[in-house]
Amino acid sequence: MTNVLIDTSVWIAFFRGQPEAEHLHSLIDVNAICINPLIRAELIPPLQLQKEVEVIELLCALHSLELRIDWEEIIHFQVENLKNGINHVGIPDLIILQNALQHKVPIFSFDKHFSLMSAHIPIRLYNPC
Question: How many Cα atoms occupy the beta-carbon half-sphere of 78 within 13 Å?
């Protein structure tokens, strides 16, 4: 099975025990998950507040995709989004999108803008169904 880039939104739902994130267990069981330094950095502050040191260590041990940020491509994504009526996509999510494209992995996210962007940017979204 191909690795799946697990977005911050899925991890947060998973840590909160929300049922929509239950499928993450299956991906963990078959070792088909990956993360990147940006996602890990987004997750650590709320985890530290909850004193989840062991979880932080586990996140650091996951397969991590190298980030190679191409700012011109990020700008291109922003322009394409605006042309297609998609506003307010943050730079971190565009970097996550770019990272998934570079490594040819699907994204598992609960953020709606990834599915909106998939109409004009060739990203693969992981669908647990």
Answer: 11
Give the CB-side neighbour count of residue 55, counting CA atoms within 13 A. Answer: 17
List of domains in the chain: 4-117 (3.40.50.1010)
Give the pLDDT confidence of 58-79 residue by residue, as tens digits: 777 889 999 999 999 999 999 9
Distance CA 109, CA 126 (A): 8
Using only the alpha carbons of the chain, give its radius of gyration: 15
Q: What is the pTM of this model?
A: 0.90
Residues 1-29: tens digit of each pLDDT:
689 999 999 998 998 889 988 899 899 88
CA distance 3 to 107: 9
